[in-house]
Design brief:
This protein is an alpha+beta fold and 184 residues long. It has a domain at 28-107: Carboxypeptidase-like, regulatory domain (Immunoglobulin-like), CATH 2.60.40.1120. It is 21% helix and 20% strand. The chain is built from three helices and seven strands, in the order H-E-E-E-E-E-E-E-H-H. The strands form two sheets. A four-stranded antiparallel sheet has the order 3-2-5-6, with no helix packed on it. A three-stranded mixed sheet has the order 4-1-7, with no helix packed on it. Strand 5 (77-81) and strand 6 (88-91) form a beta hairpin. It is elongated.
Length: 184
């Protein structure tokens, strides 16, 4: 690599770093506002809260700690929102100058109270009683083509053992071929 190439690379890298610096001409007349969005009751931060400049339809989101930083004009109004919270609008002219770098916006939880709803499969109590007596709605065994039907071998066990019941069960299972009508 010769000297000419090295100088061109150095000039190009200097011009790139100069362009990446802040351009203060775009911030003329604007106010830098820094703050945090928190829950009113718990004082915990609200991550990813939305901050919208209402009159310009632009905005940002807070970081995972609820912190934000935004340039605004003195005539702007900010709207702070977060999922599950009531939004809050604050005009920039209403923020004291000493609070512009440590603004804390507290949002209140939004509660939705729904009426209790009971869903019945019947129009009235009499229809339910008739269906209950008939046994309507009792799950039926569903046979699917290509699949073997389910087999259930579950047998309830007694909570206590009665010696007479045990003898009866043994005799019942050992019916003799000589006397098929044997009943213990």
């Amino acid at each position: 690599m010769n000297c000419k190439h090295f100088i061109l690379i150095a000039i190009a890298s200097c011009s790139l770093t100069a362009k990446s610096q802040l351009n203060f001409e775009n911030t003329e007349g604007k106010i830098l506002l820094k703050g945090k969005v928190v829950d009113l009751q718990t004082k915990s931060s609200l991550p990813n809260a939305a901050i919208v400049i209402t009159n310009r339809k632009k905005g940002i989101t807070a970081d995972l700690n609820g912190d934000f930083q935004i340039y605004v004009y003195p005539t702007d109004t900010l709207k702070f929102t977060s999922l599950g919270y009531i939004y809050k609008e604050i005009p920039i002219s209403g923020i004291p100058e000493e609070m512009r770098y440590s603004l804390t916006v507290e949002l209140v939880k939004d509660f939705y109270k729904l009426k209790e709803v009971t869903i019945y499969p019947f129009r009235n109590k009499q229809e339910f009683e008739v269906a209950f007596v008939k046994g309507d709605g009792v799950p039926q065994v569903v046979n699917i083509p290509g699949m073997e039907p389910a087999k259930y071998y579950h047998k309830e066990k007694a909570k206590f053992y009665n010696p007479i019941s045990t003898i009866y069960e043994k005799l019942k299972n050992k019916r003799r071929a000589a006397n098929p009508d044997f009943k213990p």
